[in-house]
Specification:
With about 200 residues, the protein is an alpha/beta fold. It folds into two domains: about 80 residues, no CATH class; about 110 residues, Hexapeptide repeat proteins (UDP N-Acetylglucosamine Acyltransferase, domain 1, 3 Solenoid), CATH 2.160.10. Helices cover about 30% and strands about 20% of the residues. It has a six-stranded mixed sheet. A five-stranded parallel sheet has the order 1-4-7-10-13. A four-stranded parallel sheet has the order 2-5-8-11, with no helix packed on it. The chain is globular, with a radius of gyration of 19 Å.
Length: about 200
């Protein structure tokens, strides 16, 4: 739990805006404590903390407490992450209002934005032969835009970004940007590729 939480905190820490003090107040332990408390107050890092705490309690077979922690997260942040969901370190929940249900697996450095979710879909909707409660398997460095959903037993590669208000129901390869309903890959413009210059700029 604590190793994952350390990487989760490192995602929020740069945005807190607390400057390092001088003397004893510049000690790394004090500085990081100030930033941690600032992230809890200013950002929904507490939603991530509650999720990690629930997972830790369940792993240690604590009775009742995991469900109470889950309810608390739903009450405060409207974040509902099922017991069967596994999320790697570096999780960022930007503003709450997130849902994940079913057998969902997410890699490292995942960003979940408001009113977004990952989970189940009927096999006839996604044209997938697998029954049961399987949800998506997502790689590292994943970004889920506002109001977007990733549904069904599909595979999402590494470094994938899902645009706002999109519905992903098919596999997505590595390094892709997808958007729409249903979501489709977006072809990058030539000017968006690093090191390229638009034709209009060349002519001038």
């Amino acid at each position: 739990m604590f190793e994952n939480l350390r990487e989760d905190f490192n995602v929020y820490a740069p945005f807190v805006g607390i400057k390092r003090g001088r003397g004893i107040f510049g000690h790394p332990w004090i500085f990081n404590t100030q930033r941690f408390l600032g992230a809890l107050w200013m950002f929904p890092l507490s939603a991530v903390v509650l999720y990690r705490l629930k997972c830790w309690l369940r792993a240690h077979h604590a009775p009742i407490l995991p469900r109470l922690v889950d309810w608390l997260n739903m009450l405060i942040w409207r974040v509902q992450i099922a017991d069967s969901v596994r999320i790697g370190p570096g999780l960022c929940i930007s503003h709450g209002d997130v849902m994940a249900a079913g057998e969902v697996k997410i890699g490292r450095n995942c960003t979940l934005n408001p009113w977004a979710g990952l989970g189940l879909a009927h096999k006839r909707v996604v044209s997938h032969p697998v029954d049961g409660i399987l949800g998506p398997t997502v790689g590292d460095n994943f970004f889920l835009g506002v109001g977007s959903y990733v549904l069904g037993p599909i595979k999402i590669g590494d470094n994938v970004r899902v645009g706002a208000h999109s519905v992903v129901i098919r596999d997505v390869p590595d390094n892709a940007i997808v958007a729409g309903n249903p979501a489709r890959p977006l072809e990058p413009k030539e000017s968006d590729i690093a090191g390229t210059v638009p034709d209009s700029a060349k002519e001038s």
